[in-house]
Amino acid sequence: MSVDDGFATNVLGIYAIGDVIRGPMLAHKAMEEGVAVIERLAGQKPEIDYDAIPAVVYTWPEVAAVGKTEEELKAAGIEYRVGKFPFTATPRARTNGDTDGFVKVLADAATDRVLGVHIIGDRAAEIIHIGQAVLTMDATIEYFRDTVFNYPTLAECYKVAAFNGLNRVSKFE
């Protein structure tokens, strides 16, 4: 069976989404593809940015990622900067008693545009969406730096990771 970019199969009137087509096998990917099929049938032209679909491994600690990996950026010859901040340095992680993990932000070295976000640790599945939103806005790492995050939260790691990625000192270090 072949499937085109509009999810139509080689059988007239039959569409395919989710695990039976290319891309990651994720329920939330399939849901977006299902919506896209319905929108296409209604005459709209939806687009799915597959680079902006978060992937989560529900282990302990959780692992979540969206966008490009360092390996992909190296293979593509894209120069990038890394901003990283460990959960051990956040009061919320210490209060929760779960300090394993970090937030890592990858940004284009020339433009500072966010290219990828990777999180390992408690609630990674919940806070990856902050990185996903910034990625889909084509925003720069400065967005994290300029955002006021609730304190104390695990999400505030984005701010300090941004300072680290911009090679600036933050008040949190």
Calculate Rg over CA atoms.
18 Å
Broad CATH class of the largest domain: Alpha Beta
Shape: elongated
Classification by helices and strands: alpha+beta
Number of helices: 6
Strand tally is 5
State the end-to-end distance.
55 Å
CATH topology of the largest domain: Enolase-like, domain 1
- Largest β-sheet summary: 5 strands, antiparallel
DSSP strand content: 15-25%
Name the helicity range: 25-40%
Unreliable spans are none
- Give the tally of structural domains: 2
Query: What is the arithmetic mean of pLDDT?
Result: 90
Structure description:
- By secondary structure, the protein is an alpha+beta fold.
- It folds into two domains: 48 residues, no CATH class; 114 residues, Enolase-like, domain 1 (2-Layer Sandwich), CATH 3.30.390.30.
- The chain contains six helices and five strands, in the order H-E-E-H-E-H-E-E-H-H-H.
- Strands 1-2-5-4-3 form a five-stranded antiparallel β-sheet.
- Strand 1 and strand 2 form a beta hairpin.
- The longest helix is centred in the N-terminal third of the chain and has 15 residues.
- The protein is elongated.
- The chain starts with 26 loop residues before the first helix and ends in an 8-residue tail after the last helix.
- The mean pLDDT is 90.
Task: Provide a quick synopsis of the model.
The protein has helices spanning 27-41, 70-75, 91-96, 124-136, 142-146, 157-165; strands at 55-57, 63-67, 80-86, 101-108, 114-121. It is of the alpha+beta class.
List the helices and strands and how they pair.
Elements: H1 27-41, E1 55-57, E2 63-67, H2 70-75, E3 80-86, H3 91-96, E4 101-108, E5 114-121, H4 124-136, H5 142-146, H6 157-165
Antiparallel strand pairs: 1-2, 2-5, 3-4, 4-5
